[in-house]
Amino acid sequence: MDVFQLKNKNIVVMGVANERSIAWGIAKKLLEVGANVIFTYRKERSKGKIEKVLAAYTDHNTDVIECDVNSDESIAKAFNEIGGKYGVIHGIVHSVAFAHAEDLHSRFVETSRDGYAFAQDTSAYSLVAVANAARPFMTEGGSIVTMSYLGAERVLDGYNVMGVAKAALEASTRYLAHDLGVEGIRVNAISAGAIRTLAAKGVPSFNTILHQIEEKSPLKRNVTSEEVANMTVVMLSQLSSGVTGETIYVDSGYNIMG
Ligand code: NAD
What we know:
Elements: E1 10-14, H1 22-32, E2 36-41, H2 44-54, E3 62-66, H3 72-86, E4 91-94, H4 101-105, H5 113-134, E5 142-148, H6 160-180, E6 185-192, H7 198-201, H8 206-216, H9 225-236, E7 247-250
Parallel strand pairs: 1-2, 1-4, 2-3, 4-5, 5-6, 6-7
Bound molecules: nicotinamide-adenine-dinucleotide.
Residues 15-17, 21-23, 42-43, 46, 67-70, 95-98, 122, 147, 149, 192, 194-195, 197-200 line the site of nicotinamide-adenine-dinucleotide.
């Protein structure tokens, strides 16, 4: 039985930089359940890496399209191309974030105006811009899933300006869910546990965070990229049809601890 009902559905996956990316884990699962996966990338280097891993998936329906979320023009171009080619978009995975390294390495109180705005623009506003650009093509309803982190609500050493951006991302998820519910579009965030990726390298306290999760979380271990991917696929699928505006934790239960 096809419990996910994602076969031949058109899902846009934003944020694969390499095989370690959370978005790649999600894309793999989507390909397994028969979805058509449209990848978007910012850097040519990422495009090359995506095409390389897709060489093993030639019997699947995939696409690779440029989209820099800091640019309205680039977002409009990408989604018009995707909408024009596929007609309908059924789902979006927004797995994109970035902050300047200096804002993660200095004290939060020293965050520059530019650094603050840049982290917000790339990591939170981009979800709003993408939802608005995709909306005209989500004519059958659908599901948008973004990636957040516990630093949105708790102070985690070294997460700084990114924590504030994730707080805005989670609030944007709720406001978008409210706006788009009437169009049958659900919007949810996954708050993922720590996973060793390119983006994680930028967080100076990352190794300490991994260690703390092993020690304190109910499951006494870190989560895998595959576990985050499984929940994301559920959130994209009909299995979660009654859920919107939520932040769902895939973090070994770490967030419940005092
Ligand atoms: P990653 O570095 O593999 O992915 C981040 C992606 O963001 C990259 O593909 C990068 O190209 C893309 N990106 C950055 N700026 C962009 C722009 N202007 N336009 C388009 N794309 C842009 O790292 P990841 O850990 O897979 O991160 C994916 C998401 O998961 C991020 O939102 C991150 O904050 C979140 N997250 C990560 C962890 C973790 O521990 N790795 C935990 C919780 C949440």
